[in-house]
């Protein structure tokens, strides 16, 4: 597969999914939107087999500060709704998918920062994306915004007490998650260098928040890797469906 990956920070890449992609012989091409790299023409989507959209510190509604967000939403809609291209969105990418297809996002009433538990919904338990994961599983959360209204026809696959839509499926080939499983040993150290993330971490966990989160992620790393590989395999299965 050739996968187009939209990034909003250099360090917020596909993470541990990169290893799985390399092992299977798939390739991925990043576009660094926050650095001014332009989106390809939508016709270029025909040269890719899938679209992935990563996280980032900006919010989906900050189109004045980040004008490319509006174009990115149109691009995602063209890929998912018009072409049926397999899609995976993480964190900001999850929220962008929702807005691109007619849903709505907003600030979280209770931001989630830390290693936290999410729970599958009935639709998640009976679906493909989260198949093989336990009903409740731990993941990395680092967000202060969330999907408030899913697009018409979307299914909620996972939830938590402070964030109703933790994972979402739209149609057979588009999936997204608010949380992170693609965590690597250097993820927290890389992301804490982003000012907005550092501020959120300090507000949530205090001045030693980075050390706390790094230790928590280290303890869960084996579980993160196993869950990420399972989700990756499941996503590949959905991407092959017509």
Q: What's the gist of this structure?
A:
The protein is of the alpha/beta class and 242 residues long. Helices cover 34% and strands 29% of the residues. It is globular.
Explain how this protein is built.
The protein is α/β, with parallel strands linked by helices and 242 residues long. It is 34% helix and 29% strand. It contains 7 helices and 9 strands. Strands 2-1-3-4-9-8-7-5-6 form a 9-stranded mixed sheet. Helix 2 (68-82) links the parallel strand 3 and strand 4. Helix 2 (68-82) packs across helix 3 (92-100) and helix 6 (195-205) crosses helix 7 (209-239). The longest helix is centred in the C-terminal third of the chain and has 31 residues, at 209-239. The radius of gyration is 16 Å and the shape is globular. The two termini are 15 Å apart. The mean pLDDT is 96.
Oligomer: single chain
| Uncertain parts | none
Helix percent band: 25-40%
- Give the ordered list of helices and strands: EHEEHEHEHEEEEHHH
> If you compute it from the alpha carbons, what radius of gyration comes out, rounded to the nearest whole angstrom?
16 Å
Number of helices: 7
Counted beta strands: 9
Question: What is the fold's blueprint, element by element?
Answer:
Blueprint: E1 2-7, H1 17-23, E2 27-32, E3 50-53, H2 68-82, E4 87-90, H3 92-100, E5 104-120, H4 122-126, E6 136-149, E7 154-160, E8 163-170, E9 174-177, H5 187-191, H6 195-205, H7 209-239
Parallel strand pairs: 1-2, 1-3, 3-4, 4-9
Antiparallel strand pairs: 5-6, 5-7, 7-8, 8-9
């Amino acid at each position: 597969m050739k996968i187009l990956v939209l990034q909003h920070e250099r360090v917020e890449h596909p993470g541990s999914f990169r290893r799985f992609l390399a092992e299977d012989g798939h390739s991925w091409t990043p576009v660094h939107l926050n650095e001014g790299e332009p989106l390809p023409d939508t016709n270029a989507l025909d040269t890719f087999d899938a679209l992935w959209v990563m996280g980032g510190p900006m919010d989906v509604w900050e189109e004045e500060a980040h004008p490319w967000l509006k174009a990115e939403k149109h691009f995602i809609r063209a890929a998912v709704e018009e072409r049926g291209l397999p899609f995976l969105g993480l964190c900001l990418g999850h929220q962008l998918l929702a807005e691109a297809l007619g849903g709505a996002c907003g600030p979280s009433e209770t931001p989630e920062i830390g290693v936290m538990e999410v729970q599958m919904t009935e639709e998640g338990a009976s679906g493909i994306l989260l198949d093989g994961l336990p009903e409740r599983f731990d993941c990395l959360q680092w967000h202060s915004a969330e999907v408030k209204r899913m697009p018409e026809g979307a299914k909620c696959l996972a939830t938590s007490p402070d964030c109703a839509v933790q994972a979402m499926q739209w149609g057979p080939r588009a999936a997204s998650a608010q949380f992170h499983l693609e965590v690597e040993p250097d993820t927290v150290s890389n992301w804490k260098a982003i000012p907005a993330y550092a501020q959120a971490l300090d507000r949530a966990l205090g001045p030693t928040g980075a050390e706390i989160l790094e230790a928590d992620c280290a303890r869960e790393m084996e579980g993160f890797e196993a869950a990420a590989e399972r989700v990756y395999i499941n996503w590949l299965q959905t991407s092959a469906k017509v």
